[in-house]
Specification:
The complex is a heterodimer of chains A (515) and B (326). Helices cover 57% and strands 0% of the residues of chain A. With 515 residues, chain A is mainly α. The mean pLDDT of chain A is 96. Chain B has one domain: Porin (Beta Barrel), CATH 2.40.160.40. The chains are: A mainly alpha (515), B mainly beta (326). Chains A and B meet through helix 1, helix 3, helix 4, helix 13 and helix 14 of A and strand 7, strand 8, strand 9, strand 13 and strand 14 of B.
Chain lengths: 515, 326
């Protein structure tokens, strides 16, 4: 018989082990992306309508050496030699990028947004320094990737990728030089060929165009971006999908397309979105002159409003006047009984908040330090794009349309927010406490509602079977803001209606684009 | 992010709340865990110290502790935040201990936690936090120099959230939401003059926790999951004190080191898996009532001296417990 102390020691050990036994402590850190074998090569994508470039051959790409040439055979030999000494790490890198360059870069972009989505800390004198693009590593770092900044960034990256890939498809099928793995049986197919011609390499196009766009948008993360771009190019070679000349032509094409798109970005008005103290005062004065209670920052020390002139930034699918025409009507006056009733509804909701409602508020919080609401919708879209096994160019189109819609929604929403300059619930009733961070800009209309309805409209067109699910999620995102205590019902309902109108405009814009 | 192996594809989604409730989740316990930043309930006769109850005696009680801080460490940078003002955490700790034998004492704790910030718009949270159960086993008993009693104990504890609170609203969350198991060794050397010294060290293993959102950024990377890996925790306590028939007066230096985790970034909110470290000094006075020897009252004070990703807290506590021979 076991002695008593030994038995007790066993009981003790069991007690400690019980809660962790059968407890898997690993976390899967990212979306699982199996090797992409596209449902269609989309051979005609070179003729799909361009959004920024004038034509698919605006950037010239010289004809490659023929597959029968000695020069090309030397390149093939180099691919085989590199494959022969491929390390386990390199093989993992090939597998990683074989999940799809567009999807992988979208993951990286979501990470950069989350990293840079932090407001500047207050200085000792109660003021805030502005992030400086010329000194991105300072405190505060550049950018402050808040929701409008992020919406614009997601859209520029996606549009640039889409333009560059359409051009790449144009040249691929003009020159029709096969991939190394399709021309020489001795080349390993470490990632699927997808039946596409090899020249120029779409992997290298993506590496070139995306790294250039991100150098502009996230300059403090240039190291990570360059490493990723180099890894993608290496994967193109080691996978047997590209030779050195395929990659070189792709990289040059991607960079050249980025230069065209960057020229548009530099002139789109985003640089003037911050404004100055006199302009901020004028916004408040204008609301007061209309007899309304103007929004004030409830941060301490008071923080200047977030990007008050972002509503003037150039949109992708409509003119400024067309954008204004889609904006919602004015909110209920802050002196009206309806406004008082809506304040009371927020207060009731917050005070009776259930655990389920808190979960919804937290799910869609997407506040500081996160990838923002546009990032959340990219996150949602990524799995549909993956499951549809879209070619790279079609995946880029999906993200371009989604993010153009959210950028245009964000411009329209910010224009409306600063036109009305409406206070938050906790400003007019300080007894209303929030379960999530209070955004530092006017309430009406709700940005989440606008982004989400626009995104649901576009995704519902791209993936019709899931359209009701996208609408359900957009509704949940909208109402989450009332659960959080930061928006009235009018903000949410009118924001969603506005977002839907923007989404419909983007769907009309895309109609007949050839895809 | 490293390359994931291509595995069968499933939609990644935040598990619904109802699914989470039905998930297997041992309702055991972790108590003192939390609030590195928050409560450090009393020294002697806690689950952590080197003291045992005599066989077939029990002690139940309640400790009310209030922990306040206006400075906190954002990583290693000490700062204030006018959007929080002073964060107050009020803990009502229920505790029960039972001397199974003269060598084994069993115990359990359950805190009710309320948080509040004096400034800003964030709503405080409240609820039952983690239930913890523990067994203390004396492994060594010896006389030293003919005048002191030395005992050494092994303490095993396990804990789990008692309710479905969210750990995702720090510093307003009432806890960290992890299941937790810990082992510690404790040494208690009591001189016949009444002076004693205590030392203990432990390690806690923590389960992952689930958030209500599908992604989070911490420690330099975005994780596309609602599940958070929690680093394990090491802690130590050393102290001196005096004990006689009426009084027990321990003074302890307590340290916690989280074995991993990221810092709070500049102007970011805290995150559940942050590297929460602190060094605290805690003094307690316990007094057994002469006219009612079963009743012990206690008062305590503690101060966080140094820390990382926690508040520089001052804690005041008071409690009463009732002993009985069964």
């Amino acid at each position: 018989m076991m002695r008593r102390p030994a038995r007790l020691a066993l009981v003790l050990a069991a007690l400690v082990a019980a809660p962790l036994a059968s407890c898997d402590r690993t976390v899967t850190p990212t979306e699982s992306l199996p090797a992409l074998a596209p449902a269609s090569a989309d051979a005609g994508a070179g003729a799909w309508r361009m959004f920024v470039l004038a034509s698919p051959d605006q950037i010239p790409v010289a004809a490659p050496a023929p597959a029968t040439s000695d020069a090309y055979k030397a390149e093939l030999a180099a691919v085989k030699a590199a494959q022969a000494v491929m390390t386990a790490e390199q093989r993992a890198n090939v597998a990683h990028w074989s999940g799809g360059g567009v999807l992988r870069w979208n993951q990286i972009l979501r990470e950069l947004v989350a990293r840079r989505n932090l407001p500047p800390a207050p200085r000792a004198d109660g003021t805030y320094a502005l992030p400086d693009p010329e000194n991105p590593f300072a405190d505060p770092s550049f950018p402050f990737a808040n929701p409008p900044y992020a919406a614009r960034a997601y859209s520029y990256v996606a549009v640039a990728q889409y333009e560059a890939l359409k051009a790449a498809w144009h040249y691929k099928y003009r020159y029709n030089r096969p991939r190394p793995q399709d021309v020489d049986a001795a080349v390993q197919a470490a990632a699927p060929s997808g039946g596409l011609p090899g020249y120029p390499s779409e992997d290298a196009v993506l590496a070139g165009v995306t790294s250039e766009m991100l150098r502009l948008l996230f300059p403090a993360d240039v190291d990570q971006v360059q490493r990723a771009a180099a890894a993608e190019r290496e994967a193109a070679l080691l996978s047997g999908r590209a030779t050195a000349s395929d990659a070189a032509a792709g990289l040059a094409l991607g960079r050249a397309v980025a230069a065209v798109v960057i020229a548009r970005a530099r002139a789109d008005g985003a640089g003037a979105a911050v404004g100055n103290a006199a302009q901020w005062r004028a916004l408040a004065d204008s609301a007061a002159a209309r007899g309304e209670t103007p929004w004030v920052s409830q941060e301490s020390p008071a923080r200047p409003p977030m990007l008050p002139f972002f509503g003037r930034v150039q949109m992708w699918t409509m003119t400024a006047a067309e954008g204004v025409a889609l904006e919602p009507a004015a909110p209920p006056s802050t002196r009206s009984p309806q406004f008082a009733a809506e304040v009371a509804e927020v207060k009731r909701t917050v005070q009776g908040l259930t655990r389920e409602q808190l979960a919804v508020a937290l799910k869609w919080n997407d506040g500081a330090g996160t990838y923002t609401p546009p990032g959340h919708w990219n996150d949602i879209a990524a799995e549909y794009v993956r499951d549809a096994r879209m070619s790279e160019v079609r995946a880029a189109r999906s993200f371009a349309l989604l993010n153009m819609a959210m950028h245009d929604a964000s411009v329209g929403c910010w224009s409306a927010k600063y036109r009305h300059f409406n206070p938050r619930p906790s400003q007019v009733d300080p007894s209303i406490k929030t379960s999530i961070g209070l955004p530092n800009f006017p309430a009406y209309p709700s940005g989440h509602s606008t982004f989400s309805a626009a995104a649901a409209e576009v995704l519902g067109t791209l993936f019709p079977a899931a359209a009701p699910e996208f609408v359900r999620q957009a509704d949940e995102a909208g109402i989450s803001r009332m659960y959080g205590g930061i928006h009235y019902r009018s903000d949410i309902e009118n924001g969603k209606a506005h977002g839907r109108r923007v989404g419909e405009a983007v769907v009309r814009f895309a109609r007949g684009d050839g895809a | 992010m490293s390359a994931p192996a291509p595995v069968p594809v499933r939609p990644r989604a935040v598990r619904s709340r109802s699914a989470r409730r039905s998930a297997v989740r041992p309702r055991l316990a972790a108590g003192l865990a939390l609030l590195g930043a928050v409560a450090a309930p009393a020294a002697a006769q806690s689950l952590d110290d080197g003291l045992l109850l005599p066989r077939r005696t029990a002690r139940v009680g309640v400790v009310q502790a209030t922990d306040r801080w206006d400075h906190y460490w954002e990583g290693t940078r000490a700062r204030t935040n006018e959007n929080l003002g002073t964060v107050a955490t009020r803990v009502t700790l229920l505790h029960a201990m039972y001397g199974l034998t003269d060598r084994v004492t069993l115990g359990a704790t359950l805190p009710y936690v309320r948080t509040e910030a004096t400034q800003g718009v964030l709503k405080g949270q409240q609820g039952w936090q983690d239930v913890t159960v523990a067994a203390k086993l004396r492994v060594v008993q010896a006389r030293v120099a003919g005048r002191a009693a030395l005992s050494a104990l092994a303490v095993g504890a396990a804990g789990a959230p008692a309710t479905d609170y969210t750990p995702d609203l720090l510093p307003m969350s009432i806890g960290l939401g992890a299941r937790r198991a810990s082992l510690r060794g404790a040494v208690h050397l009591a001189d016949r003059s009444g002076v004693f010294v205590d030392a203990s060290a432990g390690r806690a293993w923590r389960s992952t926790v689930r958030l209500d959102r599908p992604a989070y950024y911490t420690d330099g990377r975005l994780t596309l999951s609602d599940e958070v890996r929690m680093p394990d925790v090491a802690d130590y306590a050393v102290g001196v004190g005096y004990q006689d028939a009426r009084w027990c007066l321990p003074l302890m230096l307590v340290g916690q080191r989280t074995l991993g985790g990221g810092d709070i970034r500049r102007q970011d909110m805290p995150f559940v898996s942050n590297r929460m470290d602190f060094t605290r000094l805690a003094g307690t006075a316990m007094y057994t009532l002469p006219f009612a020897p079963a009743v012990q009252v206690q008062a305590g004070a503690a101060r966080t001296l140094a820390g990382r990703n926690v508040g520089r807290a001052t804690t005041l506590s008071a409690g009463v417990s009732l002993g009985a021979r069964l």
